[in-house]
Amino acid sequence: DTAVSQTPxxxxxxxxxxxxxxxxxxxGHDTMYWYKQDSKKFLKIMFSYNNKELxxxxxxxxxxxxxxxxxxxxxxxxxxxxxxxxxxxFCASSPPRGREAFFGQGTRLTVV
Amino acid sequence: AQKITQTQPGMFVQEKEAVTLDxxxxxxxxxxxxxxxxxxxxxxxxxxxxxxxxDQQNATEGRYSLNFQKARKSANLVISASxxxxxxxxxxxxxxxxxxxxKVTFGTGTKLQVIP
Lengths: 112, 116
Fold this sequence. Notes:
The complex is a heterodimer. Chain A has strands at 4-7, 10-13, 19-25, 31-37, 43-50, 53-57, 64-70, 73-78, 87-94, 102-103, 107-111. Chain A is mostly beta strands. The relative contact order of chain A is 0.33. In chain B, the strands form 3 sheets. In chain B, strands 2, 5, 6, 10, 11 and 12 form a 6-stranded mixed beta sheet that branches. Chain B is mostly beta strands. The chains are: A mainly beta, B mainly beta.
C-alpha cells in the first residue's frame, strides 16, 4: 500500500492552462504539505494543512490554490500556468510532533 | 536567514570510504527534529535518519549516523562504507513549531558521488 500517493506522475501542459495535482495519504496523519522542487533541486514549502485547515502559505502566487476536502487529501490547483511553474511538486504528510515527513513520488510538471 | 544550511553543493567519496555531509540549522524552538533524506536520480525522497532535539545520543540507522552537536547547531550525516548506490542528492531538514503547528524546512542539498 502506498502511504502518500500523487497523481499524475507527469504532467505536460501549455501556458495559460489550468491543472490539478491530487494527493492522498492513508497514514492517518493530521498535517499535509505541498513542496516545489526547482531545477536546482531546491525544495521549498508552499502550503501546509492541518486537519483540513490552511496553516502555512509561503507567499505563493494566488494562481496556486490548495484544497483539502478531508484530512487524507490535499489537492493543488494551478490556474493560468506559466513557464516558471515547471518543477517537481511533492506532497508530504506527517503526524503531530512526529518524526519524518512521508513523501509522495512527486509530480513533474512541464509547462510549454 | 536560512534555517537549514548545507555548505557542500557536491562531494566525492571513494567506494568503501566514509563521508560526512554537513548541515547547520537555526531555530528558537526548543523542541525540534532534524532529518536527512536521500533523493536518487529516480526522484523519490527517501527518509534516512532522525534526531530529536532532546535525544541524548546520536541517531544511527545502519550505515548512517547523525553527528548531532546541539551547541554548534550542527547535524552532520556520516555515511560509512560508501556504496555506489549511495550516489544521490542528500537533504538535511528540520521540523520546528511555527505558530503552533509544525513546519518542515529543507536545506539546499548536497550531491554525493561515489567513485568506484
